[in-house]
Amino acid sequence: xxxxxxxxxxxxxxxxxxxxxxxxxxxxxxxxxxxxxxxxxxxxxxxxxxxxxxxxxxxxxxxxxxxxxxxxxxxxxxxxxxxxxxxxxxxxxxxxxxxxxxxxxxxxxxxxxxxxxxxxxxxxxxxxxxxxxxxxxxxxxxxxxxxxxxxxxxxxxxxxxxxxxxxxxxxxxxxxxxxxxxxxxxxxxxxxxxxxxxxxxxxxxxxxxxxxxxxxxxxxxxxxxxxxxxxxxxxxxxxxxxxxxxxxxxxxxxxxxxxxxxxxxxxxxxxxxxxxxxxxxxxxxxxxxxxxxxxxxxxxxxxxxxxxxxxxxxxxxxxxxx
Length: 322
Known about the structure:
The chain is an alpha/beta fold. It has helices at 32-47, 70-79, 85-99, 102-108, 114-131, 147-154, 182-190, 192-201, 207-213, 225-236, 241-252, 259-274, 277-293, 303-310, and strands spanning 8-14, 17-23, 53-58, 63-65, 135-140, 143-145, 157-161, 166-168, 205-206, 218-220. Strands 1-2-3-5-7-10 form a 6-stranded mixed sheet, sandwiched between helices. Strands 4-6-8-9 form a 4-stranded mixed sheet. It is globular.
């Protein structure tokens, strides 16, 4: 029977933070419907100045996302002609060009190229998450394998349940390799050797191992996963959205370049922020506070802690220094 997708994203609006429950059906798999809905969601939140963070969690009680819908991958692979590495590289390059053309995209979706286009679109969605001023947090209420793990790696922060759940890349056990960014993002999170060893073996990390390796940021009791993720989202979401986006682009994209090229990315992002209205206002307030109090605000007891909590150094004080 041909693969039919029924996954959906259930969105709970909490003001500046959205809590999104990923419903992948009885097996909690990630298929084309979820990929398309995620693409639309990222577009929406990136353009909405009122949304500062998104928390993803699984609708399944014990799984974040099981893995990709294997039938989806198998059928798209079977529909494509067999090619070698050079041919595959050419297909991937063509998919990138086609995806940028709405007219060509609609035509090519009806050809064997559709699988490459679907993968290109998913990668573009994850990359937009990495360049967005919105903070994305994975609340791993349960296990995540394959594309489920890659979805978590594409988020900015990860909170995992302290249960017998696991996270990792088992693709090699099916005769394939990670295709949703796992070889790249996991490597940047935990280092080349540990990433390669994990991918070659196909064995996932326990929550304790994931925390020790730096693959997740926190491990908490399962019933506190979403609450802890929302707390992190609210905390980091208080920073200016433009600065969050600039910092993410500098780290995610500049950090994988040569030092010289990475510094170029950083300088460009820095200049956009130092000339911005928000940056100018906060710096002028900092200077004014220094003039009134006679001390640099970040060296005044309590001010740094207040700035961390509020997301910015407090505004210009009154003449008496309060």
